Amino acid sequence: MKPAAITRRACRRNPSIAYATLFAIGFTVSISLPVHLAAQEPETAAGLEVVVVTARKREENLQTTPISISAYSKKALEERGVTRIDEIAAYTPNLIYEPMPGFNGSTSAAAVYIRGVGQKEYLPTVEPGVGLYIDGVYIARSVGAVLDLIDVERIEVLRGPQGTLFGRNTIGGAISITSQKPADEFGGWADFTVGDDSRLDFKGSIDIPLSESLKSKVAIGSINREGYVQRADGPDLGDAETLVGKAAVAWTPVETLTFELSFDTTHADNDGAAFVLRDIDYRSALFNLSGLALAPPTFPLEPSASPSPFGGNPSGGGFAGTSPIFPGLPLYRITPPSLDPASPGGDVPVDNFALLNNYMATLLGGQDCLSALFGPFDPQGNPANPACYTKAYVQEDAKRTAGTFPSYSKDDIWGIGLNVEWDIGDLTLRSISAYREVDSTYSRDEDHSPLKIAQFNGFLVQDQLSQELQLLGTGFEERMNWIVGAYYLTESADSAEFVEFTPVSLITGGDVDNESYAAFAQATHDFTEQLSLTAGLRYTRDEKEFIPDQYITENRTGAPQFAPGTRILPMIAEKVDFSETTPMLSLAYQWTPDVMTYVTYSEGFKSGGFSQRVFPPLPEVPVFEPETVKVYEGGFKWDGFDHRLRLNAAVFHTDYEDLQVQVYNGIAPVIQNAASATIDGFEAEFSAVPAEGWTIEGGGSYVDAEYDELGANIIDISPNSEFENVPDWMLNLSIAKGFGLDTMGSLTTRLDWTYRGDTYLDTRNTEQLHQEGYHLVHGSLRFLTPDEKWSVLFGVRNIFDEDVILSGIFNSSIGTISVIPNRDREWLVSVQCNF
Fold this sequence. Notes:
Largest sheet: 22 strands, antiparallel, barrel
Number of helices: 4
Number of strands: 46
Radius of gyration: 29 Å
């Protein structure tokens, strides 16, 4: 796009905000642009922050850790204005972290991908492809994974399989969130934020030491803002009304023993996901009247001696005549004996509910919904007839919906954890115990109309209990660091979705019980001061049980196989178990104190499971097998110019087998081991402090993902299909400049730019769900008092007001294509006090 076009688009809504922000930041850059990095004197610039990570279960400098990892401290998150976990994806190469409500409409569900490996299904019969950990505790469900961040010390994003050190399901990578520990002294902070769409947020934390050995911390957050997708008859969608609370107690009875007890809770009461209708697809493989005209219901016709044109079934009741308006034009009226999808003629469009609604309204309701005022066949019928499902429901305004079915997303989540660390001489024993519960209810109008084409509401109740033990030590005169561990998880879930389709209404869901056992070990041996070898091994065994509770509640077709009470899946316990051993081997060489290179081979495993959503009824529960990856990786980490420039990069090759892909081989989406694939790519990140007050950061990644082989009966994807939710290029650049204001404090200006390449949001590469490459620009001005106790931040997100699709769904059996757009340009003001 040309610069002039960008400028025009950026200023079409409230241009003063965009110009004011760009002018302030641009003026800063223009008067303070630094000279070349090598020309700076070392004492004129502060060095880069030393980043400490615990990716290998011990504290290490990021620059000496042979893993492709992005790490963000509390300070780094605040400088970027990150308040929710998914926002780090804008700054993290090869990470996709998108809100993905899916069919259920839960606004807390997430689709997370690292290097093209991930999963967007939220049901308890499917495992995530990327592991999410909070203070070492694995979060089993993606519902509740869109976290509001309060009191976070550090976030680490580890790319590639991490199974030899992390609890479970880290085939694509792991995201580890570490909370701030209770402090030794009384203190805290409070933050108030106001902004667009009546945004009003409060977050705060307070440390309360109880004694020298007993410390406590409490943190709370209240996030509130109005929705941005206007609904026809109710509150706007995409709002936020969330309460978050955390509490922690740390007790150190003796110097070598520490107990940390933590509790967290989240309550969200939102008006539903911000879906809008993008298009309606009326295509049917069973029913096609193209080129024909339909007669008015009262127009007298004579029976035709020829077969019915509707599927070739003479018993379908075809009638022939000629139009009184257009002589010679044949007219047809359908009088099918039943709406039986098993009819030999197949003249009922049961494979597309949008068309089926118009078919039934015309034939059973006497409406004109298969032509435009009795003209030639038109599958959407008369737009003026409210009984017809037409493209009039596709709103011209991209942020409106005509749906009337209740829409909401409510979550109650809580968890308690106990971490114990005991130093026993040269050994350290760690125990991580946790219990968590999720109670989520949701509802969504899939057809975005007053009609009953597709409507969903349901619930998910899940609890999990996990226990992890780690024993760490050293050997060979402290030239070896080692860890051995064991992990156990038991999970129970009960889910149900109440679904209303054009022909039937039904309940789909069931009870899930999962158990996972694992043992792992990893050791790093330093052969010399420069050369080290790391080897790891993990054994995993998963046992799963699913008892479906699914049946038809209402039949609007008359077909006997859809009688109320008919079981969609047999209500019997289906059990499976899977086991796998996955190794890891890494060789690292520290060329100088500032330069390190490494090569790694690792394998990953993600458990199999069950397809919970099916329709029409099946005689047995569909089961899919585990998927596996083999990853070859090489990388380097470099600090230069007196630690004022940092560059980390990695290249990788992934052999991906038995991909679990969501496909549509029936009415509902099912998971199948659809393919094998190869994924090649790289990622790079840099940070620089070229002169006093300046900070420049950026990164980029590229992924080339290709299907190598497709399974049998896979109709949604082809060898040339693009992976869903995997852009080829991802780029980001941030520039910040701080100014001293003498006795008044300091002012920091910041500009953030991100680019994401072309992306298809579903496996079938639907064009309406194709998001072209886009740029987003955010800016901020931050004032800090001399004592650093008060700060005021003014920010603008999406300065150029770009329209972006965050996620989308196309179900060909329903005919609807729905998307979630992003918010328009938005401003915010945040005031923080430290005490």
